[in-house]
Amino acid sequence: LFKLDEFKQLVRDFGDVADFLVIYIAEAHATDGWAFANNVDINQHRSLQERLTAAKSLIKENPLCPVVVDEMNDITASRYGALPERLYVLQGGKVIYKGGKGPWGYSPEEVRKVLQKMT
C-alpha cells in the first residue's frame, strides 16, 4: 500500500466519522513480473491461498482497518479500476470521491479534504 503512513493517519483522524477498508488485489509489482527495485518480494498470485498469504504481509504493517482479499478473478479490482491501487470514498452506497490510479494518482491528502467536508 503506497503511502501507508499517510493512509494510517487518515484512519486515526477520521475513524470516528468513516469506516475504512483495504481490499488486497492482484500484486501489481510482483517479483516475477513488473517489479520495482527494493520492492517487497511477492510473486504473482496463482491461487487464493497465495493471495491470502501476501495480504498477511500488509496486515503485519497494521493498516488500522480491516483488510479483505479480492477474488482470483479480480472482480473488485476490475469494477473499481483499482490496479495497482486507488482510493475511494463512498457515502450512502454512492461513490463521492474516486481517486486517480496509483501510485501517482494515489492521494490520501485528497481523501482528507473530502472527509473534512463531511465532518
UniProtKB/TrEMBL annotation:
This protein's UniProt keywords: Oxidoreductase, Selenocysteine, Thyroid hormones biosynthesis
InterPro entries noted in UniProt: Iodothyronine_deiodinase
Domain of life: Eukaryota
GO biological process terms held by the UniProt record: hormone biosynthetic process; thyroid hormone catabolic process
Pfam family name, one: T4_deiodinase
Presence of the UniProt keyword Oxidoreductase in the record: yes
Catalytic activity entry: 3,3'-diiodo-L-thyronine sulfate + iodide + A + H(+) = 3,3',5'-triiodo-L-thyronine sulfate + AH2; 3'-iodothyronamine + iodide + A + H(+) = 3',5'-diiodothyronamine + AH2; 3,3'-diiodo-L-thyronine sulfate + iodide + A + H(+) = 3,3',5-triiodo-L-thyronine sulfate + AH2; 3,3'-diiodothyronamine + iodide + A + H(+) = 3,3',5'-triiodothyronamine + AH2
A GO term for molecular function: thyroxine 5'-deiodinase activity
Main function: Responsible for the deiodination of T4 (3,5,3',5'-tetraiodothyronine).
Stated family: Belongs to the iodothyronine deiodinase family.
Protein name: Iodothyronine deiodinase
Organism listed in the record: Pygocentrus nattereri (Red-bellied piranha)
